[in-house]
Amino acid sequence: MRIFSGIQPTGKKHLGNYIGAISQYVDLQDQGDPSIFCVVDLHSISVAYDPKEQRERVYDTAAILLAAGLDPERCIFFRQSDVPEHTELTWLLSSITSHGDLNRMTQFKEKSAKQRERVASALFFYPVLMAADILAYRTTLVPVGDDQRQHIELARQVATNFNQRYGETFVVPDWRIPEVGARIMDLKNPESKMSTTSENPAGTVYVLDEPKAIEKKFKSATTDSGSEVVRAPDKPGISNLVEILAFVTGSTMDQVEADFAGQQYGAFKGAVAEAVIEYLRPVQEKYAEIRPDEAALEAVLGAGAAKAQAIAGPIVAEARDKMGLGPTVG
Ligand code: AQP
Hints:
With 330 residues, the protein is mainly alpha-helical. It has 13 helices and 5 strands. Strands 1-2-3 form a 3-stranded parallel β-sheet, with helices on both faces. A two-stranded parallel ribbon has the order 4-5. Helix 8 links the parallel strand 4 and strand 5 (174-176). The protein binds adenosine-5'-tetraphosphate. The site of adenosine-5'-tetraphosphate has 21 residues, from helix 1.
């Protein structure tokens, strides 16, 4: 099994990213042959960003992943832009990706609708770059949150199209979406997923938030009418908090409901805040140790890029050759 996943260095990572993606990476790092994780800085330039801060954001994200328990001795961990095969393969794959398929991508529709400035064509191409990230390593399994399902479906389609047109080259990857925590919702607007770009910052809990801020956000979380701590379609706020508490305490959602039967929403929200603070505390402490040493972070990412390129280089060269590009091989 070969595992690959990427995470953007946009802003600060939030609890949804942590539960839906980062914790999966840590759990899976020994299970891949190899497991490959990437800070996808090329994806993040598809929306407005500050070039002066870009490298800092990569270090922030890398340090969060290392603090969470990713071990570069046990997996390959690198920065996307250090391995140019990702961009080359994007162009090759774009030639067999239909415009119509990209037009159907909900993330593009939502993000382009929100954007006030011009919409970059990189945002439209985002799913092709993601397909290239995955296919360049002949990945078999992609751990992601639920919001990335459509992009993985597209990567599967692109691999199939390529293999049919040019001969067996790429592996058609599967996704791994966790049963609990695949879609953590915004605390203020629990009908929408927790997101970096949400309108109300009070709805997003960041991995590096101070305990007081975490407590405030959970205590002011939108709850629903009624008073029972149970999951229900008309109780998205409480359902979300039950899921978060089950995940961070390693319990089940049924158990959380049983534990809080008969208790008030206020007490329940306080308990969720406390559990999340304790869950994130060791990550925050480790982050404070790791983040200042940018030279060490560069060394980790550089060593990872060399290992990643050793895998992607021959695979992308094979795709190029099969497409009739460059000199005859052999
Ligand atoms: N709310 C979420 N619940 C569970 N998993 C989530 N992921 C994102 N949001 C949730 C998963 O996190 C991984 C990394 O996503 P990303 O690199 O796209 O990071 P981001 O830009 O910070 O993610 P956002 O918050 O989703 O950004 P915006 O605001 O741009 O929409 C992915 O595996 C994703 O599924």
